[in-house]
Recover the amino acids of this structure.
């Protein structure tokens, strides 16, 4: 489960239907979780991430991984 303030990376394209073609450019970009999903283990919930120099976007959970501090 992701938490607000955690550093993350968009590490791959998602298999989720919530993935949009414009999101392809964000693969490999780092950011900070600003609004985690509120439903524990809900794979359909999107996570809001503020990306470095790319704005804030909502992503499916399967394309996000936590970065080590």
């Amino acid at each position: 489960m992701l938490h607000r303030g955690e550093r993350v990376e968009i590490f791959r394209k998602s298999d989720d239907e919530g993935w949009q073609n414009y999101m392809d450019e964000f693969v490999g970009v780092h950011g900070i979780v600003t609004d985690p999903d509120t439903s524990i283990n809900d794979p359909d919930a999107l996570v809001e991430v503020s990306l470095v120099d790319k704005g804030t976007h909502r992503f499916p959970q399967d394309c996000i991984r936590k970065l080590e501090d």
